[in-house]
Design goal:
Helix content is about 65%, strand content about 0%. By secondary structure, the protein is mainly α. The longest helix has about 35 residues. It is elongated.
């Protein structure tokens, strides 16, 4: 009975941790320097507010290489990454709790460390949300400058030429 519980816990552990690990390995593969440069420009173009990105001073690169098949972009990527970390920490805390209940001893200490990491991460998320709400309340972007109209240039020819 004790061995089957350990096998079940190992399977749960693998289900929680293997997909984020494989996803991270797929994103970490290096590409060519041109692709990396285009990706960096694409990120800059998406990070600027719409009024600034469409202005005359900054134009994002259109048609640059995508980050990868099905890769989320911008705020959605940040939310997904934070959710993945939160679920992973919750899974580790739950797994170590089951180990602590089953075995006691040092597993209890391991569970306390996992719980502290989970609580610390949740605290960090709350602080980031408060900071984002404060910035949204205080920061206002200036409107984009109106596009200038092209001026007609009159060419004068002299008769002495």
């Amino acid at each position: 009975m004790g061995v089957s519980v350990l096998i079940l816990l190992a399977v749960v552990w693998a289900v929680v941790l293997v997909p984020p690990y494989l996803r991270h390995r797929g994103e970490a593969r290096p590409g060519s320097s041109v692709t990396s440069f285009r990706q960096g420009l694409d990120v800059l173009g998406r990070s600027a507010p719409p009024s600034v990105a469409s202005g005359a001073h900054f134009t994002p690169v259109r048609g640059s290489a995508p980050l990868g098949p099905g890769a989320p972009r911008g705020r959605a990527a940040v939310r997904k990454r934070r959710r993945d970390v939160l679920l992973t920490l919750a899974g580790v805390a739950g797994f170590t709790f089951l180990l602590a209940v089953a075995f006691g001893g040092t597993a209890i200490l391991l569970n306390l460390v996992a719980d502290a990491a989970l609580v610390g991460y949740v605290y960090l998320l709350v602080q980031l949300r408060k900071l984002a709400a404060e910035q949204a309340q205080k920061v206002r972007y200036l409107p984009a400058p109106a596009p200038s109209q092209p001026r007609l240039v009159t060419v004068r020819r002299s008769a002495s030429g």
